[in-house]
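batch job 7 of whatever, protein = Membrane-anchored ubiquitin-fold protein
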Amino acid sequence: MSGVQDQLEIKFRLSDGSDIGPKSFPAAASVTYLKEIIISQWPKEKENGPRTVKDVKLISAGRILENNRTVGECRSPLCDIPGGVTTMHVVVQPPPLEKEKKVINDPKQNKCVCVIL
């Protein structure tokens, strides 16, 4: 393969329809690396941006990309056009808020009331 074919032009489509990129990435770049780029270049004016790689899901050709895969492994031969730009959709899933831990045998939590007549 030539050096040009080892590079992919990728743009990242955010949920509001705006894009990050397009940028050129080597086919050997990991999905984790792409997510780190998205986090570092997330628009400052947008709320609820991702904080960690675990907060980001990348979708390409209808598939959620796995962190341990490379861009080259995730390519879809049906969707990729030589010299074209690949669009990957970005879904941000912030971590769930920690809920209060409840003690199972806490008498204050018991809502049962027994009435003897």
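notes: The chain has a mean pLDDT of 80.
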